[in-house]
Amino acid sequence: MKTGKVSESILKRSILKEVKTLRSEVLVGAAVGEDCAMMELKDDEIFVMSTDPITGTTKDIGALSINVTLNDLASAGAEPVGVLLSCLLPEYTEEKDIKEIMHQVSEECAKHNVQVMGGHTEVTKAVRQPIITVTGVGKAKKGREIRTGGARPGDDIVVTKWIGLEGSSIIAKEKEEELLKRFSLDFVDSAKKFDEMISVVDDAMTAVEHGVHAMHDVTEGGIFGSLWEMGESSKVGLEIDLRAIPIKQETVEICNHFDINPYGLISSGSMLIAAEDGTGLVRKLKEKGINAVVVGKATEGNDRVLLNNGERRFLTPPETDELYKVIK
C-alpha cells in the first residue's frame, strides 16, 4: 500500500464496514471526511474529540502536533479543553529532545488555554523517528456542533488564509539546503515561517459566530482532498474556480521545484467552509485580519467540478499527499 491515508474505497470497504457496534451516546462516529467524534456530555453540551499522529516531519513536531489536533476540534465548532499525548521515540533520542518537544507543546497549549491532561512517552525500537499522537478533547453546545457533512446546495464555499502553508513550511525546513541552491535565504525563511499561520482556531470561531453549515480543516490530501471529502460527506456537488483558490507564491515556487501539485499538498492553516452568506463571512474574517476567499458553490447532485479558464474537469478522490513525494 502507498504511504499516507488509505484510499476512500479501502476506507469504506475494509475499515468503516467493520465498525458494527453503535451506541446512543455517540453523535458522530467514524465516517468519510469527519474530523471529530462527538459524545453527549449533558443536556446542553457535548464532548468533541479528535486524534492525530504526526509522521511526515520531525521539525517542530511538538507545536505541529497540538495545532493539527486543535484545528480538528475547531472545525467542529468546539472549544478545545485538553489534550493527551502519546510519544513514541527512537533510541537515539536524548533528554533535551524530549524537553524541547514538551516546550513546544506547552507554548501552543498556553496560546489556546488548553491543558495537557495526560499521556505516555516511550523510547522504542519500533520507530526510526519521533511519532506523536495527540488526542484532543473539546466541548460544544448541543445543536451547535459543525460537521464536515453539513454543506447544502447553494452554499458558498470559502477557503481561509492560503493553501499549502503546512506543506511548504515542512519542505522548507526539511529541504532547506537544497532550496538554498536555487532560492534566496529570505525566500526560504519566509516559507519556513508559514507554520506561524497553521492554527485555524480563530478562523473557526469567527465562522461559527457568523453562521456556517460545514467546516473542514485542509490537511492531508490538500485542498482537492478536503473538497472531495466535504462533497462526499455532505452528498452535494461542487463547482470550484481553481484560479480563486488562494496560494502563496513561495508555495507555487517550491512545488514547481519538486514537481508536485500544490492542490494536493497538506495544508493545515487553511479552513474549508460552507456557508449561506460566504461574502459576509469573508468580510467578517478579513475584519479579524484573516485572509479568505469565496472559491465556488455547493450544488445539487454529485458532480464535483473544477473550473479553469472555461475548462471543466472533475475532482477525483484524494490520493497520497504530495508531501510524501518530497519527504521520503
Give a quick rundown of the structure.
Helices cover 32% and strands 26% of the residues.
Provide a descriptive summary of the structure in words:
The chain is an alpha+beta fold. Helix content is 32%, strand content 26%. The chain contains ten helices and 13 strands. The protein has helices at 8-15, 61-75, 95-111, 165-174, 176-179, 185-192, 201-210, 222-234, 249-258, 278-287, and strands at 26-28, 37-42, 45-54, 79-89, 115-123, 131-141, 156-160, 214-217, 237-241, 271-275, 292-299, 304-308, 311-314. Strand 2 and strand 3 form a beta hairpin. Helix 2 (61-75) packs parallel to helix 3 and helix 4 (165-174) crosses helix 6. The chain is globular and about 55 Å long. The model has no long low-confidence stretch (mean pLDDT 90).
- How many E strands? 13
Q: What does the overall shape look like?
A: globular
Radius of gyration: 19 Å
The DSSP helix count reads 10
Mean pLDDT: 90
For the largest beta-sheet, the strand count, sense and barrel status come to:
7 strands, mixed
Report low-confidence residues grouped into runs of 5 or more: none
Structural class: alpha+beta
Strand order of the largest sheet: 8-10-7-11-9-12-13
SSE order: HEEEHEHEEEHHHHEHEHEHEEE
Beta-strand percent range? 25-35%
**Helical content class:** 25-40%
What distance lies between the first and last C-alpha atoms, to the nearest angstrom?
15 Å
